[in-house]
Automatic annotation (TrEMBL):
This is ABC transporter ATP-binding protein. InterPro entries: AAA+_ATPase, ABC_transporter-like_ATP-bd, ABC_transporter-like_CS, P-loop_NTPase. One of its GO terms (molecular function) is ATP binding. CDD domains: ABC_drug_resistance_like. Belongs to the ABC transporter superfamily. It comes from Telluria mixta. Residues 2-228 form the ABC transporter domain. SMART domains: AAA. It comes from the Bacteria. The keyword Transport applies. The keyword Lipid metabolism does not apply. Pfam families: ABC_tran.
Length: 288
């Protein structure tokens, strides 16, 4: 459905924001994970045709979207990181405004979308009184007006409280049943329970694209738990990659990424997705 072939984006002579990224994505939820500055926003902006690649090709259902941006624009919804709502309007007025801009004439669609994002009871409330989570949900409703096949959402849960985060995550998971939903985040837990595929970016490059299970599978046998005293902890800190340390009286309970048992008594343990990604990162660094 969406194919990226060797996509690169440079800014000036010295900044390569995205380097040689190739990806093939089908409907479902895709988590685009990477630290700040890894290149996620730039990649999403190229998919949304807001900026052109410096090299490579992006194909949507076989059509080159750089040459023919309308091929994807009509079928794409985009919620940028810094999405702002005109706050002196009600939710309904806001939706009507964007419906008019997008040529959507069916008032029932606006009502259905406000229901979908659970804002129908707030339709006549001023957007200026909305919480961060409500604004993000209004943003999604707006992005869905044209019934897109691809929904691109940049850092959707930034600034949301845990309950809003969960509600927003569930909404995106539901949308992923019949659309391609690409969610960028630097918080693994935002996508680990809903993404069928994870694309991992590091320093402008795509370093992995796989199912969460495959990523976890590769990290098995690389993550260890151990309980050590303070001296041993100091030693392990300098010789291994400590993922987590919890002081418990005189002892320190550790989780460590290491290819072999890092100390006497270390037990292999089931990695979390975040630990699996960290273990992979350290393994790559050490191989380099
Ligand atoms: N218009 C621009 N001009 C110059 N450099 C840019 C521009 N846009 C992005 N960059 C640089 O490209 C790199 C990737 O930025 P990008 O915003 O795509 O990363 P990101 O993974 O989305 O990070 P964040 O989560 O912080 O937004 C960064 O080094 C950034 O400073």
């Amino acid at each position: 459905m969406l194919e990226l072939h060797n996509v690169t984006k440079t800014f000036g002579k010295h900044v390569t924001a995205v380097a040689d990224v190739s990806l093939r994505l089908e409907p479902g939820v895709v988590g685009l994970i990477g630290h700040n500055g890894a290149g996620k926003t730039t990649l999403m902006q190229m998919i949304a045709t807001l900026t052109k690649p410096s090299g490579g090709r992006i194909l949507f259902d076989g059509t080159d979207v750089v040459a023919q941006p309308d091929a994807i624009r009509n079928r794409l919804g985009y919620l940028p990181q810094d999405f702002g709502v005109y706050r002196n309007v009600t939710a309904l007025e806001f939706m009507r405004y964007f419906a008019a801009l997008k040529g959507v004439r069916d008032p029932a669609r606006i009502r259905r979308l406000l229901e979908l994002v659970n804002l129908h009871d707030q339709a006549h409330r001023m957007a200026s009184t909305f919480s961060g989570g409500m604004l993000r949900r209004l943003g999604i409703a707006q992005a869905l007006l044209n019934d897109p096949d691809i929904l691109v959402v940049d850092e959707p849960t930034a600034g949301l409280d845990p309950e809003e985060r969960l509600r927003f995550r569930n909404l995106l998971a539901d949308l992923g049943f019949n659309k391609l939903v690409i969610i960028s985040t630097h918080i693994v837990s935002d996508v680990e329970s809903i993404a069928g595929q994870l694309a991992i970016m590091r320093s402008s490059r795509l370093v992995a694209c796989d199912t969460p299970d495959a990523i976890l599978g590769r990290a098995r046998g690389q993550v260890w738990s151990a309980s050590v005293d303070a001296d041993e902890y100091e030693m392990l800190r300098s010789t291994t990659h400590v993922l987590h340390a919890l002081r418990q009286g005189e002892r320190v309970s550790l989780r460590i990424a290491h290819p072999t048992p890092p100390c006497a008594g270390a037990q292999p343990c089931e990695p979390s997705l975040e630990e699996a990604l960290m273990a992979q990162r350290y393994a790559v660094k050490e191989a380099a």
